[in-house]
Amino acid sequence: MLDLAGPLHEWIEEGRDFAVATVVSVGGSAPRPPGAALAVRADGTAVGSVSGGCVEGAVYDLCLQALQDGESLVERFGYSDEDAFAVGLTCGGTIDVMVTPFRGPRAAEAAALAAAARQEPVALARVVRGPSGLLGRALLVRPDGSGEGGLGGAPGLDRTALDRAGALLAGGRTGTVDLTEDGAHCPGGLTLLVESAAPPPRMIVFGAIDFAAALVRAGKFLGYHVTVCDARPVFATRARFPEADEVVVDWPDRYLRRTVTDGRTALCVLTHDAKFDVPLLMEALRLPVAYIGAMGSRRTHADRERRLREAGLSEHELARLRSPIGLDLGARTPEETAVSIAAEIVAARHGGTGAPLTGSVRPIHRRDRAPQPV
């Protein structure tokens, strides 16, 4: 739901009634992850998607029904091979969708949507499985551990929910949490969907070259806040990188020391010049960021590794470096190379292999692991 924060916050400010259908769990191959949402206003206006088209019509009708009834509900959609015209997922998976009507004040949800619309970090925990009286109850969670609203159970439930949701928020992740009704950490009769909204992750591109301009566009397409950094003012200009969020003239290692990074940050080193690369990578490979890649030939990479070892990096630290940067797509142009780098970043984030799906027996939509730093 928080991925629709902009329009939903506007609807609340305008005093409109609407219902939100949110994917709360998935099984098998399903097109949209937990947290994906479709919202429908009382006048029929809709935004978002829960299935990429498979069951949108049925979910749309459920939203209108929930607006009339005023009650939250959970509905399961799966694949039916007995009736080709039945409502279901053609991909063969299943999704559980919770529909919640917004008629009148829902303080926790409204506050979460407002914060997400302002691109402030926030999480929203909602009961998606449990006693009917608790279904749809919501708790807003802030990075400092404070909250707003409540889940309506035993006193320990909100405390545990704050703790578990805070951990997901810190990683910028959305997921489910199973608890007992009294708030015990062990799985029980209650499931929470925790949606996290965090500011866009950062991509920092070092080296103001033609390949960087293409990578900036790819990074923006993937939702990154993209910074280009180069020590040479003649190259690091806004005119050359109009789509970048920031263009910084500074020595790369000095800039990296003073800027803010986190476990979602991608660092792309395109300078392939030892006087820039070595001090920069000495800093980068000791930071808890998600991705570190460096451009260059295999000969350049071997020389760079030798210099980094001599400068004191351990084998464990060097193992984090993706070099030569990108997946083997046979790329030639800056744009093709940017696709190669972006594909490696996506694969690293989600634990993908980069191998063709043709002939593979692995699940297409993998949910056996959370996004991992590399």
Give the helix/strand layout.
Layout: H1 5-13, E1 18-27, E2 37-41, E3 46-48, H2 56-69, E4 73-77, E5 94-102, H3 107-117, E6 122-129, E7 138-141, E8 147-150, H4 155-170, E9 175-179, E10 190-197, E11 202-206, H5 210-221, E12 225-230, E13 246-249, H6 252-258, E14 266-269, H7 274-284, E15 291-294, H8 298-311, H9 315-318, H10 334-350
Parallel strand pairs: 11-12, 11-14, 12-13, 14-15
Antiparallel strand pairs: 1-2, 1-5, 2-3, 4-5, 6-7, 6-10, 7-8, 9-10
Helix pairs in contact: 1-3, 5-10, 6-7, 7-8
Protein architecture, described:
The chain has helices at 5-13, 56-69, 107-117, 155-170, 210-221, 252-258, 274-284, 298-311, 315-318, 334-350; strands at residues 18-27, 37-41, 46-48, 73-77, 94-102, 122-129, 138-141, 147-150, 175-179, 190-197, 202-206, 225-230, 246-249, 266-269, 291-294. It has 374 residues and is α/β, with parallel strands linked by helices. A five-stranded antiparallel sheet has the order 3-2-1-5-4, sandwiched between helices. Helix 1 (5-13) crosses helix 3 (107-117), helix 5 packs across helix 10 (334-350) and helix 6 packs parallel to helix 7 (274-284). The radius of gyration is 23 Å and the shape is elongated.
What keywords describe this structure?
single chain, about 375 residues, alpha/beta, 5-stranded antiparallel sheet, 10 helices, about 30% helix, about 20% strand
Run of helices and strands: HEEEHEEHEEEHEEEHEEHEHEHHH
Helical amount among residues, as a percent range? 25-40%
Overall morphology: elongated
User: Proportion of β residues?
Assistant: 15-25%
